[in-house]
Amino acid sequence: MIAQIQSPRMTVAEYLAWETEQLIKHEYIDGEVYAMAGSTLPHNDIALNVYSVLRSHLRGKGCRVNVSDVKVRVSEQGPYFYPDVVVSCDQRDRTAIDAIYHPRLIIEVLSPSTGTFDYGQKFQFYRQISSLEEYVLIDATQIRCDRYTKNAAGKWELTSYPDSDEDLEQCQLEFSSLELRCDLGLIYEDVELGRDRNRDSE
Q: φ and ψ at 97, to 5 degrees?
């Protein structure tokens, strides 16, 4: 999310109808719509790597995994967000058209323009979704992941990867909601972090 669009406040129904006609994606919060920022190449590559890992693991298990262009609904009144990756294992989402309603896992790939919102207000909204068990934030500028999991008492616990004493090559990222562990290196495979070389050469 980057900027509020100057338009009359919309109901959820009006937003959903309006959004289908737009050339760019918009998120919806409390009657207001916000244009989505374009992503960098590292951001896109990380999201695709995550999708590939999850898709392979979930094949044949009755879950669906979607990237970028699929909305998640927090409640009947909204908000509606476009996470980078979302997994639902709820049968009701198998036939959903407008959005995912019962996500189990949500993953956001961070960028400088959205990181604060993803960690703060967006996570506050996501925590209202009763089906959500895990929220993962992956940095697109350095090798770093923060994973929030909901424990039996309904409290959210943070695990960071890699930790301060961990060998990066041995680090495994856990998706406990899906009973999956994978090498952190797979998430960053073929991802060029840092400054844009073409811009530096101009």
A: -115, -50
Q: Is 185 exposed, middle or buried (0-12, 13-18, 19+ CB in 10 A)?
A: middle
Q: Residue 68, CB half-sphere, CA atoms under 13 Å: how many?
A: 16
Instruction: Give the Cα separation of 32 and 9 in Å (integer).
Output: 6
Strand, helix or coil at 50? helix
CB 90 within 8 A of CB 109: no
Give the model confidence (pLDDT) of 25-83 as tens digits: 999 999 999 998 778 899 999 999 999 999 999 999 999 999 988 999 999 999 999 99
Domains of the chain: 39-193 (3.90.1570.10)
Q: Compute the distance between CA of residue 59 and CA of residue 3 in angstroms, rounded to an integer.
A: 37
Alpha carbons 126 and 140: distance in angstroms, whole number: 21
The Cα 69–Cα 24 span in angstroms is 10
Residue 195 CA neighbour count, 13 Å, CB half = 6
Output DSSP code: residue 100: B
Q: What are 186-191's contacts with CB under 8 Å, separation 24+?
A: 186/49, 186/53, 187/46, 187/49, 187/50, 187/53, 187/138, 187/145, 188/46, 188/49, 188/143, 189/49, 190/45, 190/49, 191/42, 191/45, 191/46, 191/49, 191/140
The answer to whether the beta carbons of residues 93 and 64 sit under 8 Å apart is: yes
Prior bond to 79 cis, omega within 30? yes
DSSP 69: S
